[in-house]
Amino acid sequence: GFSVRCFAVVPEPTPRPTSPELSTPKAKMMNLMRHPQLWPVAVSRPQMWAPSVLTFLHGALATRDDVPLFWVNLLYFLFPYNLLIMGWNDIIDYKVDSINPRKQDRLMAPHQLEMLPTLIVLAQLPFVAIWLATYDLGVS
Question: Any stretches that span the bilayer, and where are they (predicted)?
Fold first, then answer.
């Protein structure tokens, strides 16, 4: 139906789906958060991967340094970087988020929250090892 507001015809708002099985981004994220193995992907906010990679590309393409490390760094800015940033945010904000009615459906289970710091570190370690192994000390 339609209603008239301020002399304009405005369509009635479409009711929001309430079933988590529907394919809305929020429903997909809720289902991913409940998956026993894939919940770290949800924590890393896949919708933020593109902005992170674009920010990395801006700097990487400007410097045009080491090509092999370019691919390693690009991979880092997809998942591990976002897990670090978003996961740390989830750890710090957990108590505040737990009383926020808007975020009730996105909270991690307590065992997930306990595991998150370890997962963040484990996701960083391969990249730190590669960076340390390829670091040029500039000594001739």
Answer: 70-92, 113-134
